[in-house]
Amino acid sequence: MPIFKKLIFAPFFLIAFSLLIYQLNPLLQSYDIIFSLSTFTLIQLIIIAALISLSGFLFVLFATLAGDWRFSLPVGAVASAIPLIFMEKSLGLVFTVGILISVLLVSLTLDSALKSYLNFQPASLLGPFIRRLSMMLILAFCIIYFFSSNKLIVQNGFEIPDSLIDTALKMVPLPAEQTQLPNISPDQIAMLKKNPDLVRQSGLDPKILDSLDQPQNSANNLIKQTVKDQVQNFIKPYASFIPAILAVLLFLTLQSLTSFLNLLIYPLLWFAFLILEKTGFTKYETEMREVKKLVV
User: Fold this and answer.
1) Is residue 246 within 8 Å of 145, Cβ to Cβ?
2) What are the DSSP calls for 132-186, one per residue?
3) Which of 46, 51, 172, 238 could form a disulfide with 20 if both were Cys (CB 3.0 to 4.6 A apart)?
4) What are 263-294's pLDDT values in tens digits?
5) Does an H or E element contain 101, and which?
6) C-alpha distances out from residue 260 to 60, 151, 235, 257, 266, Å
7) Contact, 94 vs 103, CB < 8 A?
8) Could you read off the pLDDT of 187-202 as tens digits, one per residue?
9) Is the separation of the CB atoms in 227 and 122 below 8 Å?
10) Rounded to whole angstroms, how far apart are CA atoms 269 and 274?
11) Do residues 40 and 96 touch, judged by C-beta distance below 8 A?
């Protein structure tokens, strides 16, 4: 097969993979996406999962047509260097190593499978390699997400996003009597401000006193701040485990979305090789082989 046929899908893979890295980079700037339940966040995660599946599909398709890991591995090495362009140097370097290992393992195992199959069925032969590469890419990203979130929490501390508290309060409506502001006189508020330790003993942030002497703040804001302070105090002893928990949650989320989207890979593989055959880009040969059977 001419060289251009072996490499024709390499640019498409590199473009799709570059778009994936570009979409992943903002996730390293904050950990809020794990807690966000908005439609925008869901769409963003679906786009990332789709790009992961597409990158796996294009790489396996390219490697299959190349037929030799000596073609696919250099292209994979070029792709693994892309994070160094978009991401922070230390995180990009770790991600580069993870991508390179993923590409190496998939290239070598795929090359072995292409030399030993008996009947070429693209869905059953190539599908597992696409799923495997997708999972390994997600794992590699979640590793650097762990380091990134750990750095953010060490520098700035961990704070429950307001959006998560708002969603929780909407899902658990409170009785009317619990949504009224407490009846505290200005003198009592002034006394508590002078003795913030009394407020802290109740598990609250002394800043909540500012809400009591500002009429424009609603009872919902007071309840929201109270709930947030209670949750913050509860999770404070476990702050060191939070980056690992966030990374696991991200892995499960992306893996679930990618597994669902990968169901489309099987008809896509069948259709892609049908088009390649109909256009004369590829062809099939039927071989008759002798087999040896034991007869007693």
Assistant:
1) yes
2) HHHHHHHHHHHHHHHHHHHHHHHHH-----HHHHHHHHHHSPPPGGGGSPP---H
3) 51
4) 899 999 999 999 988 888 888 888 777 777 77
5) helix 89-116
6) 19, 32, 33, 5, 12
7) no
8) 666 666 666 676 566 5
9) no
10) 8
11) no
CA nearest neighbour of 53 among 272, 267, 247, 260: 260
Q: Identify the pLDDT of residue 277.
A: 87
Q: Encode burial over 172-198: b for 16+ CB neighbours within 10 A, e otherwise.
A: eeeeeeeeeeeeeeeeeeeebeeeeee
Nearest-10 Cα torsion for 110, 113, 115, 117: -140
Question: What CA–CA distance (Å, rounded) separates 215 from 221?
Answer: 11
* DSSP type of residue 293: -
> Which single residue is written with the structure tokens 């030399």?
115
Q: How crowded is residue 151: how many other Cβ atoms within 10 Å of its Cβ?
A: 15
Alpha-carbon distance of 197 to 182, in angstroms, equals 19
DSSP secondary structure code for residue 118 in this structure: S
What is the per-residue pLDDT across 117-174, written as a single tens digit (0 to 9) for each? 888 888 889 999 999 999 999 999 999 999 998 888 888 777 766 666 655 556 555 4
Contacts of residue 275, Cβ cutoff 8 Å, sequence gap at least 6: 281
Tokens describing residue 64: 């299959």
Distances (CA, A) of 159 to 30, 113, 145: 11, 49, 17
What is the Cα–Cα distance from 10 to 6, expressed in whole angstroms?
Answer: 8
Q: What is the pTM of this model?
A: 0.78
Judge contact between 111 and 68, C-beta under 8 A: yes
Whole-angstrom distance, CA of residue 78 vs CA of residue 56? 15
Phi, psi of 88 (to 5 degrees): -55, 145
